[in-house]
Design brief:
heterotrimer; A mainly alpha; B mainly alpha; C alpha/beta; A: ABC transporter involved in vitamin B12 uptake, BtuC; C: alpha/beta; six-stranded mixed sheet; 9 helices; 41% helix
Chain lengths: 284, 342, 244
């Protein structure tokens, strides 16, 4: 039974991790707390939904489209708004992203009302596989596998490509990076786009089994904040592991203490861990 | 005295407006908006102490707001104690909680601290939504005070103690809220100009410098946090009396914490006028939008707001007060220019 | 003259890195003592150990004969030791006057009195005409002045200056030198970390030389410059630099 619960938690955790990795990029590299991150996810889900509803393309298959579209959304948001508040004092940038989140969230309500929308008859059904005596829902498994794959892809991109290394260099020391000939403005735009691409992908993976409505992503974005802090800012590997920890903790807490307390367990875990590791699990 | 009048001329103008407008415009929705403005400005001032002045970002002030709402409500409904005492009790409980939680938490830096405050509020939200004694998921609906204590209002003192905090007497309630807001505003302004305010700002600017000139950062941060929690809690009591119904989802969520952040940063972070200016603009526009678009529900008002916030942040990072300052400087320069021409 | 500060066998390790090893010296009242040494000699580390920014691994610091080892920085400041920072840390969103008043509040709760004290110090440090400028928009020399002025406002007995002349031009350095001498005349004791020899030699009563964490020489300026070990430490450095 416990094994079954841990598996469920892990499956959730991979998706959390992908959303958190996206958030970690902008938070760690640019030190921008993006309150509109959840709304990027939301637009990704609506995007995947409407592609399915209008031309019948399954959300899983529209993943590449969503990655590109939300990447563009991220870049646009950076160019139009974030760029102007990047060097502003205090919480200005945070407020700007909060305003953005209001706009993006309520636009979905304005266009498509507050009604729940569901993708019916998705490509991968919600039937369970029996594996080593445990039941695993196929659609969850596919989403988790996809999320893991994409997270690894992002990590490889950061380590192995020139752009990835430039992003890391910029996060460590912006001025030095500029002196080395890195166009930090471009790097920031790419980082924001990449952050969007992560949630675009997560949205496509989740759209077939998650009800879609304007408030659907509030919880994901709150959890992503906690996950990123738990893992340590700017640490992508940290975000991945913290995502898994939170996924399992939530599932175990839900089982042992009660479903309505499962998020409380998550928040308590953060408060305890942060006392011992003030810079997150993987921070130093 | 003349100096104070001059320095705080804006405050006196605003006070006059807050006294006159409710008498001039006698419609319930305008009165409601003014009460909202005052309550959120109150908590904004509270939040400004710890985040604007002291530089420790809190995303969890709904925790203290909620405790204030629940404490006074429970004391009123279950024990028939006037909300004035409930307000003080809630404030003290909030301050004590802030002390206990943050005694250890202040070693956290920046975002790690901010996320911790968010977690505290979320934990309280879960506890209160499950705690049957305080109504659990159903929350508590406030009974009219006259029904709760039938013989109230015989003496003037009793009237003041009970009915001034009953929103069913809308104008007295509005002026009571205004009076309490003024007290909080004056305390915040006085603190800003005292040694404590200077020390808070030094801590905000640089921990190391603060220590090098003899400031114990933790103690001053704790002081800021406890005061902040107390005032936020007072705001919570007013909210409960105004809204006449509370539950965990209404008072504890992140979206409520963010309102305090929003009005303050919109008005001007670290500026004692920030919260009230931000709150006035936010809620008057809200009223305007609702009247223009008919009703909410389409989200159009929120879209316009969000866009407005983005616009303000992109043009003036110091919020509305930054714009006010800029205009003031321009006017002063214009005047001087005019004089030199003569 | 009586002893003000005594440092006994201070050792500071960061993991396996030894930043200070067994350093001892004393400072008498109304003395100007300079701490010099090549880059990485451990001067700033020693400063931080004395000022309470981190406790030394071993060894003791005495002030007026009282053990102050490991006390937090704000307590050490209240006892009468105030430091400045090598990388100036002006309080950016506060005006020059407010910067200095913040220091002055150590001895008074009254805003008026703090303002008067700040006024005197601004006069002394040549900042009077800039009192309403925000700390963040000052030039480097003025930032350094504010740094010193803010420290002075706490009325220390011992003022510790960490490379406050680096990056200044000749006249500006002269100003700071004169300021140091004035301060001493007013009864202060100074411990100065500095790279610029021409500035340090004429004003110092004694010089302590560190190299790779150890004290290699101590004495009056003329003795120290002729000390073999010191020449080796510095010239070795210089030859190296020229080799590049």
């Amino acid at each position: 039974m416990i094994g079954q619960i841990i598996i469920n938690g892990l499956l959730n955790g991979f998706v959390y991790a992908l959303v958190a990795v996206g958030l970690s990029l902008t938070w760690g590299v640019m030190d921008i707390v993006n309150f509109a991150h959840g709304e990027f996810l939301l637009w990704g889900m609506y995007g995947a939904f409407w592609i399915w509803a209008l031309i019948g393309l399954d959300p899983l298959l529209s993943l590449p489209i969503m990655v590109v579209l939300i990447f563009i959304l991220g870049v646009l948001v950076y160019l139009i708004v974030i760029r102007r508040v990047l060097n502003a004092p205090g919480l200005t940038a945070l407020l700007a992203t909060f305003g953005l989140s209001m706009v993006l969230k309520n636009l979905t309500q304005f266009f498509w009302t507050a009604n729940y929308r569901n993708v019916t008859n998705p490509l991968v059904s919600n039937k369970s596989l029996k594996l080593l005596g445990m039941y695993i829902r196929q659609d969850y498994l596919v989403a988790a596998a996809g999320a893991l794959l994409l997270t690894i892809l992002v990590m490889t991109f950061m380590d192995k490509t020139k752009t990835g290394v430039a992003i890391k260099a910029t996060s460590m020391n912006k001025q030095a990076a500029q002196l080395m000939g890195i166009d930090t403005n471009k790097i920031y735009a790419i980082t924001f786009g990449l952050s969007g691409a992560c949630v675009g992908a997560a949205a496509a993976l989740m759209a077939s089994f998650t009800p879609i409505y304007p408030e659907a992503c509030a919880l994901y974005s709150t959890l992503a904040f906690v996950i990123v802090a738990l893992g340590g800012f700017g640490n992508i590997k940290g975000a991945l592991f913290a995502g898994l920890i939170i996924g399992v903790a939530e599932a175990l807490g839900g089982y042992l203490v009660g479903t309505s307390y499962k998020y409380m367990i998550v928040f308590i875990i953060y408060l305890v861990v942060i006392q011992i590791r003030p810079r997150g699990l993987f921070g130093w | 005295m003349v100096n104070i009048m001059k320095k705080y001329s804006l405050a006196f103008v605003m006070l006059a407006a807050f006294i006159i407008i409710p008498l001039a415009v006698r419609t319930t929705d305008v009165h409601n908006v003014i009460i909202y403005i005052l309550i959120y400005a109150m908590v904004g001032e509270a939040w400004n102490l710890i985040t604007g002045f002291t530089g420790q970002t809190s995303f969890g002030h709904a925790a203290y707001f909620g405790i204030g709402a629940y404490t006074s409500t429970v004391m009123l409904e279950y024990f028939h104690i006037t909300p004035w005492i409930g307000m003080l009790a809630g404030g003290l409980i909030s301050a004590a909680l802030a002390f206990i939680i943050n005694f250890k938490m202040f070693k956290l830096k920046g975002h790690y601290f901010a996320i911790a405050t968010l977690c505290v509020a979320e934990i309280l939200k879960t506890i209160f939504s499950k705690w049957t004694w305080v109504g659990a998921g159903d929350g508590i609906a406030l009974t009219p005070i006259t029904a709760l204590i039938p013989d109230v209002g015989k003496s003037a003192v009793a009237k003041l103690a009970w009915l001034s905090l009953d929103v069913r007497n809308r104008l007295p309630f509005l002026y009571t809220t205004l009076a309490v807001f003024c007290v909080i505003f004056i305390i915040c302004a006085a603190l800003e100009n005292s040694r404590i305010g200077f020390y808070w700002k030094a801590i905000r600017e640089s921990h190391e410098v603060a220590e090098s000139i003899g400031i114990n950062p933790r103690n001053y941060k704790l002081l800021a946090m406890c005061l902040s929690a107390f005032f936020a809690s007072v705001g919570g009591t007013f909210f409960a009396q105004f809204f006449k119904y509370i539950d965990a989802i209404t008072v504890f969520p992140l979206s409520v914490s963010m309102i305090f952040v929003l009005v303050t940063v919109l008005g001007g972070l670290g500026n004692v006028y920030g919260p009230i200016i931000g709150s006035v603009i936010y809620y008057s526009l809200d009223l305007l939008m609702r009247r223009l678009t008919g009703s909410s529900g389409t989200g159009l008002d929120q879209i316009v707001f969000g866009a407005l916030i983005v616009l303000v942040t992109c043009t003036e990072p110091r919020g509305i007060m930054g714009i006010v300052d800029r205009i003031r400087l321009k006017l002063a320069a214009g005047k001087r220019g005019g004089e030199s021409h003569e | 003259m009586s002893e003000l500060l005594r440092i006994e066998n201070i050792t500071k390790k960061f993991g396996s890195l030894v930043a200070n090893e067994d350093v001892s010296f004393t400072i008498d009242e109304h003395e100007i003592v300079s701490l010099i040494g090549p880059n990485g000699a451990g001067k700033t580390t020693l400063f931080n150990s004395i000022a309470g920014y981190y406790p030394p691994t071993s060894g003791k610091v005495f002030f007026h004969g009282k053990d102050i080892t490991g006390k937090p920085a704000y307590e050490i400041c209240r006892l009468g030791i105030t430091r400045t920072f090598q990388v100036v840390k002006t309080l950016k969103e506060m005006t020059v006057e407010e910067n200095i008043m913040t220091g002055a509040f150590l001895h008074t709760g009254s805003r008026k009195q703090a303002q008067v004290m700040a006024g005197e110090i601004m006069e002394m440090t040549g900042l009077s005409d800039k009192k309403n400028i925000l700390g963040g928009s000052l030039t480097i020399i003025d930032k350094k002045r504010v740094e010193i002025a803010r420290a002075l406002a706490t009325k220390p007995e011992l003022l510790m200056l960490d490379e406050c002349m680096a990056g200044l031009n000749q006249t500006e350095i002269k100003d700071v030198m004169n300021l140091c001498l004035d301060l001493r005349k007013n009864g202060l004791t100074l411990l100065i970390v500095e790279h610029i020899m021409e500035a340090i030699m004429p004003i110092s009563d004694r010089i302590v030389v560190l190299n790779v964490g150890r004290k290699i020489a101590e004495g009056i300026p003329s003795d120290v410059v002729n000390n073999e070990e010191v020449i080796k430490a510095y010239l070795g450095d210089r030859y190296h630099a020229e080799g590049n």
